[in-house]
Each structure stands twice: as structure tokens, then as C-alpha cells.
């Protein structure tokens, strides 16, 4: 019971997600500022480290306004539900050797399902806002997630095809430099697909301020807006940790195994994502749909064929 409570509230639970959110949000601001040759937060705390805490405390103390005409229960529950669902994948991730909350033989399937259902919850936040801009942002999320879902699932299943298991712990223990080279095309496709699922540049069409105000966020404020932001960063953690677990050997290092390597690999993926966001313009929804259905899905099918060939040649005993 004590281990369950520790996992739920400390690591990899609520406290870990809050620390990750504050740290990544601050790093996001400073890194993007450096790429854009701006200063970023610098006055409150060393390197502006307190600024994120002040921003979060401001959101938590501001009034959460519920617009007229909305279902108040749906409007208020969806942000909390989005946070809970975004945190659940952490229970299946082997963060360190022998430390996984749920060591299931279907962990990879659970990871894919929980990550894939999050955009639908965000769609419901826009649907329940009684605002045409929020509804349009929600429709864009649903359209984008459906178009990217097939590519995401097929690329995420790459290690399962190669190693013959859906158990995340087994996948990590079976990984090596040789398997990484074989899985590299799948990793690239997984990364591109997760940019679409996370609504990150160049696929950040659901909250395009120039077109639809602020997408599904438009009517949210105060604590509810804080929960939606927390859900977004918790989803960042889930997909980054999923990529590290599936393709990069999780906690495995050069000479020893440690959570330090897991964290550094996650930050490496975050840096790549931020660099792409700073350097690429947003594409249109039509361009995203064409790219997904015309290019991404055929490439993931070709990658699956390559993995079956590689498995028959070098991993027949897996």
C-alpha cells in the first residue's frame, strides 16, 4: 500500500509531474529565448527560475470563469480528467531497473492507448465550451490525431515487432546499439507522429491564434487552464518517456544503468522538439493531412516490412 501511494503521489506520480512541468516550462522559455536571441525570464530568481512558480501560483489563484450556456460539470471535469489520463502512462514505464508500477505483458499497448486517447479528451474540452472557436480547435485536434494515430501506433509497435513482446521491461532489457540502428527509421517516424499528437510545430494548427483565437483553450481560465497546461506537460513526459523506453534503451548508459540517463535522453528529445518549434513555420491543416495520409502512413508500412525482414535475419530467436 505504501509503495502504491509513493508511486501515485511522489514518483512517478503527481509530485514528479509538477516538478517536471515547472522545470520543463522554465527550460522551454530559456531555450527558446536563446534560439530567438531574446532574454527570457531573468529577474525573479537565478536565471528567472522563480518566474514559472509565480506564473503557476497566479493561475491557481485566479478566478475560473464558467461561461453561460455550457455544461458546468463537463466544462470543469474535463481538465482534471485530461491530467489523470495524461499521467497514467507513467505507471507502465520502467523508469529504473526493477522499478515499474505496473509490469504488464501488454504495457506497450496500454501506453499507445492512453497517449492516443488524450486528444479526444481535449476535443471534449472544446466541444463543451459553447464557443465556436473552441469547437473548431477541438475539431482540429480530433482531425489531426486521427490522421497521425495510425503512423504513431505502427511506429510505436516497431520494438514489439523486432523483439516479439509488448512488455516494456523486456523491450528495454533486449535493446542494444545494434537494435537501435535497426529501429532508427521507426524512431524518426515515431518522433514526427508525436509532434502531430502533441500539436507541436509545424503541426500546431489546433491553437493557431491567427485563425481561431486560442483553440480549445479559449474559454478556460484560472485553475482549469492550469490543469490543461499540466495535462499538456504530463503528456510531454509520457511520449518522451515512451520514446526513450521503446527506442533509446531507457535507463541504460554506456558503463552503468541509472535514471540519470533516462532523464537526459528525455531532455534530448525535448531539445530537438523545441529547436523544430523555433525554426519551422506552422503548416496548414490541409498540408498536415496530406503529409500524414500520403507520406507518413506508407513510410510506417515500409518500416514495418523492414522490421520483419530484420527480425527474420538477426532476431529470429526473439
Describe this structure in words.
The protein is an all-alpha fold. The chain has one domain. Helix content is 69%, strand content 0%. The protein is built from 13 helices and no strands. The longest helix is centred in the C-terminal third of the chain and has 30 residues, at 285-314. It is globular, with a radius of gyration of 20 Å.
Quick recap:
The protein is 69% helix and 0% strand.
Tell me the quaternary state: single chain
- C-alpha Rg, in Å? 20 Å
Helix content: 55-70%
From N to C, what is the helix and strand string? Answer: HHHHHHHHHHHHH
Low-pLDDT parts are none
- From the spread of the alpha carbons, the general shape counts as globular
- The tally of structural domains comes to 1
Q: Biggest sheet, open or closed, and with what strands and sense?
A: none
Count of DSSP H/I helices: 13
- Find the structural class using helix and strand composition: mainly alpha
Number of strands: 0
**Cα end-to-end separation:** 35 Å
Q: Assess the beta-strand content as a share of residues.
A: under 5%
Output mean pLDDT: 88
Amino acid at each position: 500500500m505504501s509503495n502504491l501511494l509513493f508511486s501515485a503521489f511522489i514518483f512517478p506520480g503527481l509530485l514528479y509531474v509538477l516538478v517536471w512541468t515547472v522545470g520543463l516550462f522554465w527550460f522551454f522559455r530559456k531555450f527558446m529565448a536563446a534560439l530567438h536571441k531574446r532574454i527570457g525570464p531573468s529577474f525573479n530568481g537565478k536565471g528567472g527560475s522563480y518566474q514559472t512558480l509565480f506564473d503557476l501560483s497566479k493561475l491557481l489563484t485566479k478566478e475560473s470563469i464558467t461561461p453561460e450556456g455550457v455544461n458546468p460539470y463537463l466544462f470543469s471535469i474535463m481538465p482534471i480528467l485530461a491530467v489523470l489520463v495524461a499521467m497514467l502512462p507513467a505507471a507502465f514505464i520502467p523508469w529504473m531497473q526493477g522499478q515499474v508500477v505496473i509490469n504488464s505483458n501488454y504495457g506497450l499497448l496500454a501506453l499507445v492507448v492512453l497517449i492516443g486517447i488524450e486528444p479526444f479528451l481535449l476535443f471534449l474540452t472544446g466541444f463543451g465550451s459553447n464557443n465556436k472557436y473552441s469547437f473548431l480547435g477541438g475539431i482540429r485536434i480530433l482531425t489531426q490525431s486521427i490522421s497521425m494515430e495510425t503512423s504513431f501506433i505502427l511506429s510505436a509497435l516497431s520494438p514489439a515487432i523486432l523483439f516479439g513482446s509488448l512488455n516494456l521491461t523486456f523491450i528495454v532489457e533486449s535493446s542494444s546499439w545494434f537494435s537501435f540502428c535497426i529501429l532508427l527509421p521507426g524512431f524518426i517516424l515515431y518522433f514526427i507522429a508525436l509532434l502531430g499528437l502533441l500539436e507541436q510545430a509545424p503541426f500546431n494548427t489546433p491553437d493557431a491564434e491567427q485563425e481561431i483565437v486560442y483553440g480549445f483553450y479559449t474559454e478556460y481560465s484560472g485553475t482549469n487552464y492550469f490543469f490543461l497546461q499540466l495535462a499538456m506537460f504530463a503528456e510531454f513526459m509520457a511520449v518522451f518517456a515512451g520514446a526513450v523506453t521503446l527506442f533509446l534503451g531507457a535507463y541504460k548508459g554506456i558503463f552503468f544503468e541509472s535514471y540519470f540517463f533516462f532523464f537526459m535522453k528525455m531532455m534530448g528529445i525535448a531539445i530537438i522538439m523545441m529547436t523544430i518549434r523555433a525554426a519551422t513555420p506552422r503548416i496548414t491543416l490541409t498540408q498536415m493531412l496530406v503529409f500524414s495520409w500520403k507520406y507518413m502512413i506508407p513510410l510506417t508500412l515500409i518500416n514495418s516490412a523492414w522490421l520483419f525482414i530484420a527480425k527474420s535475419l538477426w532476431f529470429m530467436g526473439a
